[in-house]
Structure formats: structure tokens, C-alpha cells
Amino acid sequence: MISVFGSQIGAEELAEVTASLGAQWMGMGPKVKAFEKEFAAHLGAADFAMLDSGSNSLYTAITLLDLPGGSEVILPSFTWIACAHAVVLAGLKPIFCDVDVATMNVTAPLIAAKVSPRTSAVMVVHYAGLPVEMQPVLDLGLPVIEDAAHAACSVHRGRACGTIGDVGIYSFDAVKNLASPDGGGVVARDIKRVERARVLRYCGIGKSGFESSATKDRWWEYDVRAFFPRFLPNDISAAIALAQLRKLDALQERRRVIWNRYQEAFGDLAWLHRPVECPDGDRHSYFTYCVRIDGKSRDRLAKYLYDRGIYSTLRYHPLHMNPIYGATERLPTTERLNEQALSLPLHPRLSDGDVDQVIDGVRSFDA
Ligand SMILES: Cc1ncc(COP(=O)(O)O)c(C=O)c1O
């Protein structure tokens, strides 16, 4: 079966992990520190705090904004469930907004339609790695959380996605552009927030153990500054993420080549809408290749490909249609994407033969 998402792990990752294990260090330590420094440099950010997942980074990012309890956060429905869960867990209310059909991203007018006196923040998601048009969103004058889980390699108007809003988050789970068993982290315009995330991530403990021993006789005591879960990253994930980061250009180049092959191969198919390209000057991360198919044939295409050994999927089932959110509003474009959108395999481990097979599969489908 050709998988729809995937990562490429090689000798570099093995060497980094072996070094950590050889040094008897698996928990948070030197690899996390090294990754934080190198990833911040990759983003052009002053600082970056690694956490244990993108989902927990969302909760942390919302906490860092100190939003009034019970206030509303506007976010797309066409995103991962943890985006809305983070809002609820922080004691706030998610308000779902629609997306643009071509970019599959939120726009400022779609967000503006949902603003109320109770709105305290906006969460944007750079879907598939295509940057959201950020300036009009910033012009709404609300704090902005940027979910760059798909966009660790995306650039918008010269700035790394995630670094444009007030707080940005990343995910390094096993199928992301920069993969590890699990990982995430936050950046912020005000770097004091990044330092605060480092305190929050370990049950709100400011300093502990040998870190505080220089100033304290009793180094076993610790200074708890907040009520917060344990979202601590570990050196095994950081070791793998570090190796991935150092070869990211090659991984991204492979994604770009596959993306371009699909774009060329599907250009003449009247029934298939290809994903839009980045505006000039921006950079796409090519996290997923999400097409749109008119009419009822999307499900048939997915089944047809599956029978030919090709896995495809839809990311995401709209959040407002999920019974747990019980939302009654209609979001027409999101609901249309729920019927028409489909992600085809795109990841650096695909061989040229796999890509040919996907292209043949799609082109031979009778829509
Ligand atoms: C848009 C988006 N945000 C957040 C996350 C959460 O990341 P993680 O899997 O690292 O918890 C994901 C994961 O797929 C995602 O797609």
C-alpha cells in the first residue's frame, strides 16, 4: 500500500539517537536545547521552546495570551480537533469560521463575519502549508495564534509562518515535514512568552534541581509558578528532529518534485481541481497534496485508488460537524470541502514508481 503521509528516517537520525542512548540520556537534555537553538535559527526567531506535541503547544499558546475566561476564539472548522479542544480546555469558547474554497484557508472577511464583543483571539491554520494572507488578519486588531503545524517550512512575505502572529505553534509528529515520534513547540513575538512556555511545560516549575543549586542550598526544592500539565519534550524526539532539520532542504526538495509532477500530470483533468500554488515570494511546505473533485465522485476515487494499493484521505472532518461540538451553524465551503477534498500521497519516502502509480491511478479513474 502506498501511504498518504510519511517520513524518511535514515542514518543521520539513527546516529543522533544512538548518541543520546549511548550517553544514557533520554529525557529532556542537550538535544532539546540544541534543537531549540537550531529551529529558532531556521525560523529566524529569537527563541523557540520545544514541547511534547503540537496539540499541547496549542493549549500552551492560548494560555500564554491570558485571554478572559469564557471569551471566544475564532478558528477554522477545517482543521485538527486539538485546535478546538485547546480552546475549550483553556476555558474559552471556539467559534468556527469558514474557509476559502481555493486556498482552503481562513480569510480576514470570513473571520470578521464571526467577530463579536466576546471575541478575544483568532487562531489561523496554514492549511497544507499554504500561508494564510496574514496582514488583513492582523489588521482585525485581535491577538493571533498561528497554527503552523503544516507550515514549519512555509514562508509568507519573507517571514517564517508561525512567527507572524502573537504566538505560533509547530508539530513534529511522525508524519510532519520535520518528523519525530512526537514533538511540538511555540514561538512568540514577545520572547518573554517563550521563556514562560519553558516554565509552564514542566508543571509550571520555574527552576528545579541543579539549575537552582547555584543560588540555593536546598537544590531539591523547586519553585512552582503555575497550574499546568507536564508537556515536556524528550531527547529522543529532539535527536530525531535535529537530524531531520539538518536535512530539511533535501526532504523539502523531494516533496516539491512530487508536488510538481502531480501538478503537471493532472492539469488537463476537467473534473479535478488542483491545489493552488503559493503567491510569488511566499514558500509552500507541501505538507499534503489536497485536490478537489466535483460531484459525488470523491468517495469513488478514494475507493478506486485504495483497490489499486494507494491510500488517500481527507484531513479534516470539519470540527463543527462533530457531535462533540454540537454546532448548529452552517459553513458552506467547509461542508463542500468535506464532500470534495482528498489528499493524495505526498511525502519524501515515495519512490518515482510510487508517484507514477498514483498518477496512473488518478488519470485512469472514470469520473
Ligand atoms: C493543523 C494541526 N494543528 C495541530 C496539530 C497537532 O499536532 P500534534 O500531532 O503534534 O499534536 C496537527 C496534527 O496533525 C495539525 O494538523
Keywords:
three-stranded antiparallel β-sheet; globular; alpha/beta; seven-stranded mixed β-sheet; binds pyridoxal-5'-phosphate; 12 helices; 367 residues; 12 strands
Explain what you see.
This protein is an alpha/beta fold. Helix content is 35%, strand content 13%. The chain is built from twelve helices and twelve strands. The chain has a seven-stranded mixed beta sheet with strand order 1-9-8-5-4-2-3. Strands 10-11-12 form a three-stranded antiparallel beta sheet. Helix 6 links the parallel strand 4 and strand 5. The radius of gyration is 21 Å and the shape is globular. The model has no long low-confidence stretch (mean pLDDT 96). The site of pyridoxal-5'-phosphate (PLP) has 14 residues, from helix 3 and helix 4.
Short structural summary:
The chain has 367 residues and is of the alpha/beta class. The chain has 12 helices and 12 strands.
Shape: globular
Overall pLDDT metric? 96
Low-pLDDT stretches are: none
Q: SSE order, as H and E?
A: HHEHEHEHEHEEEEEHHHEEHHEH
Strand order of the largest sheet: 1-9-8-5-4-2-3
* Distinct compounds present: pyridoxal-5'-phosphate
Structural class: alpha/beta
Q: Into which percentage range does the β-strand content fall?
A: 5-15%
Distance between the termini: 22 Å
Tally the helices.
12
Helix content, binned percent? 25-40%
CA gyration radius, whole angstroms: 21 Å
Characterize the largest beta sheet: strand count, sense, and whether it forms a barrel.
7 strands, mixed
- DSSP summary, beta strand count: 12
